[in-house]
Amino acid sequence: MDPLSALSLAANVLQFIEFTGGLLSTSVEVYKSTTGASNASIALEEIREQLSSLSDRLLAGTANIRSSASELALKSIAASCSADCVRILTVLNDLKVQDGSHRAWKSLRAALKLAWKGEQEIERLTNRLKDRQSMMTLHICAISNEWLQKSHQQLRGLEKQNKILQLQYLDKLNEISSQIRDVKLRINKSKISGLDSTFSASDLDDLTTRVSLVSVAERDITKEQAILSSLDFDYRPARHENIPEAHARTFSWIFEAPDSKVKRANSFVTWLRESGGVFWISGKPGSGKSTLMKFLASHTQTRDAVQSWASPGKVVIASHFFWSTGVSMQKSALGLFRSLLYEIFRQCPELIAEACPSRWEANDLSHAAGRNWTLKELVECFQAIKANETSPAKFCFFVDGLDEFDGDYVEISQFLTEIAESPRIKLCVASRPLNEFQDQFGVNKSSMISIHELTRKDILNYARSRLQEHPRWSILGLDVQAAESFLAKIVDMAHGVFLWVTLVTQSLRSGLTNDDTMEDLNARLDSLPRSLEAFYQQMLDSVDPIYHRKSAELLQIQKARLDSSPGWPTPWAIVLLHEREYADPDYAVTMSRKKFKCDEVTSYCEQATRRLNAKCRGLLEIRRDALEYIHRTASDYLNKPELVDYIRSRSGEGYNAHLSLLRGYVACLKMGVPRTMGTRKGTREGDKDMCAEAVFSISLHFAKIARRGGIDDAVIFKLVNCLDEIAMSMVHREKGGDLFERLDIWSTPIASLCGPLRFSPFVNSLIWTESADYAATKLSGDADYFRRVPRPALWYFVVRRQTLTWDPSATKFLHLLLQNGHDPNETFMHEPEYHRNILEPQGINYWKGDLYKSYQTIWYPEVGSYGPPEMTSAWFGFLTTCGICGHFGFRRRVESELYRHCEVSNSPFGYPRLACFNTALKWGVYSSLLQYGANPNAHPTPFTTAWADFVRFAIKYPSEVWEASRYLETLDNFFKYGADLGASTVGFTLLPGDDSSHMPLRMITGWDTFCESLEDLTGSETEKELKFISQITIKMIKQAISTRWPLGRLHSVIKKVFPEKLYQPMLDLISESQAREDPNARGKRQLEDTNTEVESKRLKPDSIDVTMT
User: Fold this and answer.
1) What is the C-alpha separation between 116 and 110, in angstroms, rounded?
2) How confident is the model at residue 863 (pLDDT cuts 50, 70, 90)?
3) N- or C-end of the chain: fewer Cβ atoms within 10 A?
4) pLDDT for position 681
5) Residues 6+ apart with CB under 8 A from 1033
6) Could you please report the per-residue DSSP string of 763-810?
7) What is the Cα–Cα distance from 69 to 75, expressed in whole angstroms?
8) How many CB atoms lie within 10 A of CB 491?
9) Nearest to 449 by CA among 478, 423, 429, 477
10) Closest to 121 (Cα-Cα) out of 81, 86, 87, 79
11) Other C-beta atoms within 10 Å of 584: how many?
12) SS (H, E, C) 978-998
């Protein structure tokens, strides 16, 4: 029982004690009559009704009691009070029905004395009431203390998460803390007073109110935190952090008072303070748009200006920086909306409930925060915020790099414009001056600036600062006019492109280091390319010929890493490790595991920087401990096909960049460093195995690509063996200890590997990356190799396909597991993990095997995971990932709602699962699983069987089946391997003509499901779709004939559904079969029409529990 329920029961007990004790001690008259009572008396009927109500509440309160000592004692007291209440009610009821005059008793005590024949029983009752009231104080204190401990713990968790998310919850958390202190003081006061102090019903009401307020506040805050966390994603702030800070004194003009030079720029400040809509910052590549956007989004003057626009309400400033070379979320609409909503809800958590009603109203956090966000849902959230006219908040969004968005430029521009139509929302966007953005944002000249036309002064200040900082600049002895003339020449040649000036000043500083004269510097400046692309080509050509090979290979390594795994870094150490590859290709295999000191790492990092500068001439640089292109324009240029070929021609014959990456990753994992460099953003403390699996998966991904590039298996397998050994070093199999105790943290230049673990993360990674050939090698020496994971390897493998398609590589790995004895029907208890901070346990309903049951959430504070155990198997997981389960007809709305509520997989049916389904058909995955024992009559849920779902899906969505022939072949295999038309499931009653399913429950056969699916056809199906459905129907008829299953109402159904040219062959098939049938055959079912009541067997309503909790 939760504390609120326990306190509620205690309140009922105290109310009974006080009410009954008062009646026994007072001299108020009690009339036998139920009418005509004076103000000074209590009607007999009132006493009876109040006692009856108290008795009912006491009985109800003891229904669910947890087995703690205080709650058991409370249950005992409540039961005793209920028994006394019943005894008193019996007396009062007897008095009510007796005949006689309307005489009164002096008190209830007098009436009980008459009924119980003396005072002795009344005295015992009075003493019991007093004892119970004293004992109640002790039990209330104990229950409250339990709640206090739990609430304190949860408050600490909320405060910790509040710091992580930087939520504006300080006032709320302080109020909760204050309420908890008040409760604690009241409890301590009662403890000190001992038995002399007792809780009254009113005291307990006040205590319950305080507990309720705290519980509700904690629940709401935790739900808000969980929803907010679900919007976050890895690398969300990475692009913002990667943009260099503005140079000192640059961009200050945008906030200055208007004059002739900055008139257009000042329109931005006017827009901030007064206007709405969209403001467009346009600029050439490399002109400093992103730096300016970062400068504006975080500047105090921006907030002050926008606050004057929002006054008297609060202002919310949020930003998103698109990044074309980043992960998918950094360049997609999904990432944009999640970033902005994350910032909105972080600053205005009170908007979450209104903007996300379906998640907020969900009964459990797996639906509130565990399921993936869809683009449609995110857009609806924005529309809700836009439509909200009651909130005092106003919003200013900064969106940089629209030209780096990977979708339709016109669509994203139109959507942003529509959002900014609200008088409470404004957007500042930045992009290159492409036509799509010019058409959308460039019409109103007062709401746009071209940054390359306004940064002359900034470029001048930057160039002056960079050159004057060099110690040899003063030696030139230039007068002010000559120096300013030279600087002005740089500015004129820059044409507003800041990046060009950065590269030019680097070259000029090199000249100063060489003791160039002013004439030399002018000649150097005149010789430099005027465009960025020409500059990049010159940088590439300026590499010393002795470094050509190493330079080309480093550039290829960076390109390969970005192409194959943009979410992971190219660690700085690879610059040095790649050098070792020339002398010893097996260096990563032979090198020992070593931990480096801080000064050693610093020295090596400086060495890597110098070598990188020499070999790549600034095209690549080390930022935040990882290799990065100097700018997006450099990446764009170097990845042009002709440049890719040119760079490849400089590298060694047969060079494979992915092999170098694999070697570098293996070597980096053997290097212990004092701090984690390149660690994935957003990874929570405790998610160590998740991070490790990702590192090994990326490494195996490099191995697969290198192997496809022709690298010998022996070379690959030696490196993969090293990964296996490194992972095994993280495993400690001792029983008893705390699995998640951080005994060993091995920080590497890639990520932190944290142990001990009970299972090797490499094995999971091997399954995920479908490395079949290496897996076969391991299995040849150890048949149980893949049984060293907490859940069946086959399940791990098939559930991953939810967002992937099946292909020959995946099919090969599947056959490898099946051939080595992995059973698709093997069941196990699966505990879903959601790596977020969660509310206290919620009651959630889940499917467990073939039965629907309710489980209490299991809370694992060490890893922040929650969810009830779920009985599943690889076969169930496969059916779910293909998305064919739960597609009930429109008349079975109840079953659809139950399935939606309880489905463990939260992924919506859409392209990923559809592609999974169809590619599984194409490559024979269904047939392979059936061949190796998958049960075609299995029940993924109580309402479905595997084969019936397969048929129902195709009839409901015929156009979604890409290859009809493959589908029909697979249907044959379902029947070949045992699909039973009579396999039964639970369902509500649905008779022909019913609009919707209803009670009572029935056992529904697969044949019933098939007939219903045909009846649910809408008539809008195309000729092609009907032809495909007719082919399915013919196969079903043939199966019914071969197994002598009664066809039931199918004869009439097909006439309604199909045109004559399609249903006539079916009728002919049935007639031919019936003609061959021997009506006198014994023990055989006739293929005649049977009543629906025969097809569907009645199930008693109480034979299965379908209660929703």
Assistant:
1) 10
2) very low
3) C
4) 38
5) 1014, 1054, 1058, 1066
6) HHHHHHTT-HHHHHHHHHH-TTGGG-SSS-HHHHHHHGGGGS---HHH
7) 10
8) 20
9) 429
10) 87
11) 11
12) CCCCCCEEEEEECCCCCCCCE
133 CB neighbour count, 10 Å cutoff: 19
Torsional sign, CA 1009, 1010, 1012, 1017: positive
Calculate the alpha carbon distances from 181 to 160, 185, 186, 211, 920 in Å.
19, 6, 9, 11, 59
Q: Tokens for 508?
A: 């000029």
Closest CA to 7 of 177, 189, 151, 199: 199
Compute CA distances 553 → 263, 578, 760, whole Å.
49, 9, 33
Instruction: Give the residue-averaged pLDDT of 723-737.
Output: 72
Six token digits for residue 104: 């009164």
Type of residue found at 341: L
Residue type at 834? Y
Q: Which residues contact 821 (CB under 8 A, 6 or more apart)?
A: 783
The CA distance from 147 to 176, in Å, is 13
Q: Exposure of 679 by Cβ count < 10 A (0-12 exposed, 13-18 middle, 19+ buried)?
A: middle
Residue 605 in contact with residue 682, Cβ under 8 Å?
A: no
Q: How far apart are CA 1024 and CA 315, in angstroms?
A: 56
Q: How far apart are CA 590 and CA 521, in angstroms?
A: 50
* pLDDT at residue 90 is higher than 80: no
Nearest residue to 1013 (alpha-carbon basis) of 1022, 1023, 1005? 1005
Using pLDDT thresholds of 50, 70 and 90, give the confidence band for residue 732.
Answer: low
The predicted model gives 1002-1013 an average pLDDT of 89
Q: pLDDT for 520-537, tens place per residue?
A: 999 989 988 888 888 889
CB-CB neighbours of 347 under 10 Å:
18
Find out whether 1011 and 1024 touch, Cβ atoms under 8 Å. Answer: no
Return all residues near 979 (Cβ < 8 A) that are at least 6 apart.
936, 937, 946, 947, 1006, 1039
Q: For the chain, what percentages of helix, strand and coil (3-state, to nearest 5) are there?
A: 60, 10, 30
pLDDT tens for residues 806-821? 889 889 999 999 999 9
Tell which residue, 954, 947, 956, 839, has the closest CA to residue 891: 956
CA atoms of 965 and 762, how far apart (whole Å): 39
By DSSP bridging, strand 594-595 and strand 448-450 are unpaired
pLDDT band at 764 (very low <50, low <70, confident <90, very high): confident
Res 1086: pLDDT: 45
Look at residue 523 in the predicted model and tell me its pLDDT: 92
* pLDDT confidence bin for 970, thresholds 50/70/90: very high
Share of residues in the chain with pLDDT > 90 (%)? 31
Is the pTM above the cut of 0.85?
Answer: no
CA distance 2 to 830: 26
- Count Cβ neighbours within 10 Å for each residue of 981-998 and write b for 16 or more, e otherwise: bebbbbbbbbeeeeeebe
First-to-last alpha carbon distance for the chain, in angstroms, is: 15
pLDDT confidence of residue 749:
87
Contact between 341 and 881 (Cβ < 8 Å): no
